[in-house]
Amino acid sequence: MKHIIKIITLLVAISAFWIGLLQASVIPSSHTWLLPIYFIVSLGCYGLLMVGVGLMRFPTCPQEALLLQQDIVEAKDFLKQKGVDVGGSD
Amino acid sequence: MELADRAVGLLLTLTSLSIFTYYTFWVIILPFVDSDHFIQQYFLPQEYAILIPVFAGVVLLCFLCIFIGSVMLKSKKKKA
Amino acid sequence: MEGQQKNKEKNKYSIIVPTYNERLNIALLVYLIFKHLRDVDFEIIVVDDGSPDGTQEIIKQLQQVYGEDRILLRARPRKLGLGTAYVHGLKHASGNFVVIMDADLSHHPKYLPSFIKKQLDTGASIVTGTRYVKGGGVHGWNLMRKLTSRGANVLAHTLLWPGVSDLTGSFRLYKKSVLEDVISSCVSKGYVFQMEMIVRASRKGYHIEEVPITFVDRVYGSSKLGGSEIVEYLKGLAYLLLQWSAIRNISSDK
């Protein structure tokens, strides 16, 4: 199945539910009209929240950069001994 | 640097949570509160609950379109 | 345990590394791979896109040190893109597992044993390195880079439900047959290609496992992420949303 169809199905289900609400008028219709916008605003907030949380908990590894520098020095020493040309380009 | 980035993350999280809370209150709860209740004075009339998000959405969409358009134009120029 | 040991001896890993102007990095990378993969049968396949900086001469020198059967140079005449580089390398791979990684040292070979171990433990078809979990991490990104990366990830997860936490990472271990299967249906370029690979693989129902890796952004040279990369990414997302059914129908028709 196309993935977009899954998403559309989901949206259709939600709209059906909404139209049902509109028809049944359990709650005032002026109120029901606001729900789609509420849904979109919620989605936007969810996205912003996830980006915010992701940024807050973004894993960083400054020590890895140092370890890598050590590895590079070690590798250069070894390769020079073996006669591989590692000088020059930096 | 590190801390500043995390602070921006926290700011985004708080912004999104407060927008969500405020909007939920505005749209879902307020209609059930009496119109002469003191809390009503802290909220704009209901029609703004539609107008503001729609306006923001349109602005965002325009921004996105302009961004994509300009990038595509630039890459086309590069190729030519 | 014994069976696992046997497996370890039988398995061969082909490490495909596409290069373009990486003469220093590739030498360092090869050294580090040999340092961290001691008791494993493997070969390194360097797919060089005609680098003018003498990358290929360095490879030949490295072949003298490590042996021509361990380091294979499979050059191409000019820059032909990342996706086809893997296809090209794959043709020459003799192992039953294939590892793909970048040559610029942003992927450290010290994680290779954890990839291999994860695969042996779980029998997964794909083990992908993820930067966004505990034990993983990124170094050298500014706020803008972090923001776009998080935004892109949230967007992809909301729209595609891939079940993998790091879509655009390119440090992965594949069963050779799986890589051959998935790569044949991929059309994207650049790092959207990495996303397409993993999304397609997950939709085809392959067993995917993750291991944490750290990513130290380009020690030499600089990585770029501008407007055109973002637009490419959005196009890739839209493409993956729409394109799937055609491929699926073809494969189920067979």
UniProtKB/TrEMBL annotation, chain A:
Name of this chain's protein: Dolichol-phosphate mannosyltransferase subunit 3
One GO cellular component, as annotated: dolichol-phosphate-mannose synthase complex
GO biological process, one term: GPI anchor biosynthetic process
Gene transcribed to yield this protein: LOC107426580
A Pfam family recorded for this sequence: DPM3
Main location class: endoplasmic reticulum
Species this protein is from: Ziziphus jujuba (Chinese jujube)
Stated family: Belongs to the DPM3 family.
Annotated transmembrane regions: 34-56
Protein topology in the membrane: Multi-pass membrane protein
InterPro entries recorded: DPM3
Function summary: Stabilizer subunit of the dolichol-phosphate mannose (DPM) synthase complex; tethers catalytic subunit to the ER.
Protein's pathway: Protein modification; protein glycosylation
Keywords: Endoplasmic reticulum, Membrane, Transmembrane, Transmembrane helix
Summary of subunit composition and partner proteins: Component of the dolichol-phosphate mannose (DPM) synthase complex.
Subcellular location: Endoplasmic reticulum membrane
From TrEMBL, chain B:
tRNA processing in keyword set: no
Chief place where the protein resides: endoplasmic reticulum
Record's bilayer topology term: Multi-pass membrane protein
GO cellular component: dolichol-phosphate-mannose synthase complex; endoplasmic reticulum membrane
Family: Belongs to the DPM2 family.
Chain segments annotated as transmembrane: 7-29, 49-73
Entry GO MF terms: enzyme regulator activity
InterPro entries for the chain: DPM2
Record's keyword annotation contains Transmembrane: yes
Protein name, as recorded: Dolichol phosphate-mannose biosynthesis regulatory protein
This protein's UniProt keywords: Endoplasmic reticulum, Membrane, Transmembrane, Transmembrane helix
Function: Regulatory subunit of the dolichol-phosphate mannose (DPM) synthase complex; essential for the ER localization.
Span of the signal peptide: none
Subcellular localization, as worded in the UniProt entry: Endoplasmic reticulum membrane
Origin: domain of life: Eukaryota
Pathway membership: Protein modification; protein glycosylation
Subunit structure: Component of the dolichol-phosphate mannose (DPM) synthase complex.
Upper classification of the organism: Eukaryota, Viridiplantae, Streptophyta, Embryophyta, Tracheophyta
GO biological process per UniProt: dolichol phosphate mannose biosynthetic process; GPI anchor biosynthetic process
UniProtKB/TrEMBL annotation, chain C:
EC category: transferase
InterPro entries the UniProt entry points to: DPM1-like (IPR039528), Glyco_trans_2-like (IPR001173), Nucleotide-diphossugar_trans (IPR029044)
Subcellular location per the Swiss-Prot or TrEMBL entry: Endoplasmic reticulum
Record flagged with keyword Glycosyltransferase: yes
Glycosyltransferase 2-like domain ranges (all copies): 14-182
Biochemical pathway: Protein modification; protein glycosylation
SUPFAM superfamilies, per database record: Nucleotide-diphospho-sugar transferases
Membrane-crossing segments per the record: none
Its EC number(s): 2.4.1.83
Keyword terms: Endoplasmic reticulum, Glycosyltransferase, Transferase
Role noted for this protein: Transfers mannose from GDP-mannose to dolichol monophosphate to form dolichol phosphate mannose (Dol-P-Man) which is the mannosyl donor in pathways leading to N-glycosylation, glycosyl phosphatidylinositol membrane anchoring, and O-mannosylation of proteins.
Assembly behavior: Component of the dolichol-phosphate mannose (DPM) synthase complex.
PANTHER family from the UniProt entry: DOLICHOL-PHOSPHATE MANNOSYLTRANSFERASE SUBUNIT 1
Protein name per Swiss-Prot or TrEMBL: Dolichol-phosphate mannosyltransferase subunit 1
